[in-house]
Specification:
- 19% of the residues lie in helices and 31% in strands.
- The mean pLDDT is 97.
- Strands 6, 7, 8, 9, 11, 12, 14, 15, 19 and 20 form a ten-stranded antiparallel β-sheet that branches. It has an eight-stranded parallel beta barrel with strand order 21-22-23-26-27-28-29-30, surrounded by five helices.
- The protein is built from twelve helices and 38 strands.
- The chain has 730 residues and is α+β, with helices and mostly antiparallel strands.
- The chain binds (2R,3S,4R,5S)-2-(hydroxymethyl)piperidine-3,4,5-triol (DGJ).
- (2R,3S,4R,5S)-2-(hydroxymethyl)piperidine-3,4,5-triol binds next to loops.
Length: 730
């Protein structure tokens, strides 16, 4: 059993493959945190409990024991108001207006398997023996508040998940003001903090800084997890790198407003926490009602950042992503967005698809502009009916034409939006998020549909599924192109208005569950102006995400490298686009664009009919090469070799689970006069096997490749890249 309870020391010990996590009940039922880190046997975990005699200005909740203050105790789920002055994990307002609560242990249960969180995405098990779950029931009897801390330890994945359920078991209403999913205290602050920040078109850049006194906080109040901060934070031992050092990563399975904090206090201890953003959030709990927080995934690695990433990757590939495409190679696609934008007709689309077929591409995706009167981005969202001006014979005819030459067909939607200039909005002006008597701020000339309302969701469900049923569509791109303003719902009473943003997410998840469940053969790709909702919540419903609207190969190095800190390659959409690039106007080589895009779910996003014969030959080669490598790339283990944040060269590699083959991708942005030697040391291979470099036929020892390395001989030009395949020679 990965979870043990020692009744004499009243300690809980959770163990996943390489990790231990421990807590202890002390005194009248206070739950303290003992340990999170490398797996230990758990002989003397209770000895970690430590009190601090007479900490001045840290009051003592137990009058007879001046050694205890919650201000100095490592807390498992900290409260404010009873002597802990650090950041609390939760706050509840009682009917009398007070916000002081104190949770004490009541009971617990340990059981095999992992429960689904009602209405929320989360990691899962396929059989009960894959994990154990611990539910610790805490209560504040005065408030009538029950809080259940839920932990799961996986047996074959090195991760622990946490979430919290609040229940009002009293007779008075309660109001949740803050309800984080996880909070962990550490006995020191010898850490650096790593987070993934950015903007539209520049997502998930890596940033790290020392943890110093006070608080480092990130979050989103945009109504989506956002381009700007990813719902992920890690504490690293100082100087930890890709391969060495301790790393504690925490990631929220949620796609809306979140907050994450790293705090260091007067005693040089630290606290890491993550959950729903308390800013502008509150939730009314009437007697008998309950509230479930999203899930936090916690990964510890003693093998540096790379070790942490691979633990997240394998869990997410196998026990977060779902459906047919979890284990299926993803099709190579061509998308018409950067090829045509809104300016296309059926013949143009067919010609791009035909050109794709000739190059070996498997799926054509029709992007924005096929519905309503959508000749521009200022209209028609919500009018999900085919534009007969562009497609005079309808969608079915176009799909059949494309399918007739054995190509799959995919379609773009932006189902959460409505244009004020649309029939849907004219008929239902209160269906969008809005606040009475206030301006409705537009973004890209659009408003956001109020997904907290079931009538709105039902109407969208009908329109989208009517289209999906009308033709053999095997792929959907689900886009979302603005952040929330005037967040209010016409369907909620005054006292529940601040629930709107979270209710929106619950409504979105419900609709996604319904639609993806009804169309299991469809590959869904999530998108939010590129990677504005690149989070585990979305991956639960849609196993791949359009990584960024920036398709420039050089820019993509940082974006894809940063994304890979948490998310596996198989979740990242990556396309070759035209040069000069539409976002940064840079001209890179077709080879490099191909190699960058092949480091993800591969595709093209340009007018294929404009290729020269020479370009066609290169692209045919890329498509064939990706087909032969895609199982390895999509389902192997990724090792990062050189960081684009640190220099002119970037490299990563993917190794098959059985270490029988590997593919290495190397990139150099600019040529340098009197070029220094290019040399790469590989990782993750079997040191005792020999590997053939297929490009040359040369044989190398796995031990040599990893320790002595390999020399590269790129041409002396800008924008160079290599994609090298190694096969074990057994
Ligand atoms: C934003 C997406 O990220 C793009 O790929 C494209 O689908 C546009 N929306 C279409 O409006």
């Amino acid at each position: 059993m990965p979870i043990h309870y020692n009744s004499s020391s009243r300690t809980f010990h959770l163990q996943s493959t390489g990790t231990s996590y421990a807590m202890q009940i002390i005194k009248t039922g206070v739950l303290t945190h003992l340990y999170w880190g490398s797996k230990v046997r758990g002989t003397a975990l209770d000895k970690l409990f430590q009190t601090m005699e007479r900490a001045s200005f840290s009051p003592n909740p137990f009058p007879e024991d001046r050694s205890i203050s919650f201000d100095t105790l490592p807390q498992e789920y900290p409260a404010y108001g009873t002597s802990d002055f650090r950041h609390p994990a939760y706050q509840v307002q009682l009917a009398n207006g007070s916000t002081v609560t104190e949770l004490l242990y009541r009971t617990h249960r340990i059981y095999a398997g992992k429960p689904r969180l009602e209405g929320l995405p989360g990691t899962y098990t396929e059989s009960e023996d894959e994990a154990d779950t611990l539910e610790i029931e805490l209560a504040d009897e005065t408030a009538g508040l029950k809080v259940i801390l839920i932990y799961t330890a996986f047996r074959d994945y090195d991760a622990i998940t946490r979430s919290v359920r609040f229940e009002n078991e009293g007779g008075q209403p309660l109001r949740l003001l803050r309800a984080l999913s996880a909070s962990v205290d550490f006995p020191h602050r010898s850490f650096e903090v790593l987070n993934l920040y950015g903007s539209w078109s520049r997502e998930r850049w890596i940033e790290r800084r020392p943890l110093t006194s006070g608080m480092y906080s990130i979050g989103s109040s945009r109504g989506s997890s956002s381009h700007h901060q990813n719902p992920f934070l890690a504490l690293l031992s100082p100087g930890a790198d890709e391969d060495c050092g301790e790393v504690y990563g925490i990631n929220l399975v949620y796609s809306g407003n979140f907050a994450a904090h790293a705090e260091s206090d007067q005693f040089h201890t630290s606290r890491l926490s993550i959950g729903l953003n308390p800013f502008d959030f509150s939730w009314l709990l009437e007697p008998g009602e309950s509230f479930q927080t999203p899930e936090a995934v916690m990964v510890h690695s003693a093998e540096g950042i790379g070790g942490m990433s691979r633990k997240f990757h394998s869990l997410y590939r196998k026990r977060l992503c779902r459906g047919l495409y979890r284990d299926e190679p993803r099709p190579i696609l061509v998308n018409n967005w950067e090829a045509t934008y809104f300016d296309f007709n059926a013949d143009k689309i067919e010609s791009i698809a035909r050109a794709g077929k000739e190059l070996g591409i498997e799926l054509f995706v029709l992007d924005d502009g096929w519905f309503g009167k959508r000749d521009n981005d200022d209209r028609s969202l919500g009018d999900w009916f085919v534009d007969r001006n562009k497609l005079p014979n309808g969608l079915e005819d176009l799909v059949q034409r494309i399918r007739s030459f054995d190509m799959q067909f995919g379609l773009w939607f932006e189902p959460e939006m409505v244009s004020p200039n649309s029939d849907l909005y004219r008929a239902n002006p209160d269906w969008c998020l809005h606040v009475p008597n206030r301006r409705r701020t537009e973004g890209r000339k659009q408003l956001i549909l109020d997904y907290s309302r079931s009538d709105v969701r039902e109407a969208v469900y009908k329109m989208i599924t009517d289209i999906l049923r009308s033709a053999p569509i095997t792929y959907v791109k689900w886009d979302m192109n603005r952040n929330m303003t005037e967040v209010g719902s016409a369907a909620l009473p005054a006292e529940r208005q601040r629930e709107t943003a979270h209710r929106y997410m619950l409504g979105l998840y419900e609709l996604l569950e319904r639609i993806t469940g009804e169309f299991p053969h469809v590959l869904f790709e999530s998108c939010s102006g590129g990677g504005g909702r690149f989070d585990p919540g979305m991956l639960y419903y849609m196993p791949q995400i359009w990584t960024s609207d920036d398709t420039d190969a050089v820019e993509r190095l940082k974006i894809q490298y940063g994304t890979s800190i948490v998310y596996p390659i198989t979740t990242m959409g990556a396309h070759v686009s035209a040069v000069p690039n539409h976002q940064v106007h840079r001209t890179t080589s077709l080879e490099m664009r191909g190699h960058v895009a092949m480091s993800g779910n591969f595709g093209y996003e340009l007018d294929l009919t404009k290729f020269t014969e020479e370009e066609k030959a290169i692209v045919k080669g890329q498509v064939a090469e990706y087909k032969s490598l895609r199982k390895l790339i999509q389902f192997g283990d990724q090792y990062r070799l050189l960081s684009p944040f640190e220099g002119n060269e970037t490299a990563w590699m993917v190794v098959a689970g059985d270490k029988g083959e590997a593919v290495v991708a190397w990139f150099r942005v600019l040529a340098i006069a009197h070029q220094p030697l290019c040399h790469l040391r590989l990782k993750g291979l079997d040191p005792n096997r020999d590997y053939v470099l297929e490009a040359t036929g040369d044989v190398y020892g796995g031990d040599e490749l990893m320790n002595a390395g390999i020399n590269l001989w790129p041409p002396h030009r800008d924008f160079q890249s290599l994609l090298w395949r190694f096969s074990a020679r057994d």
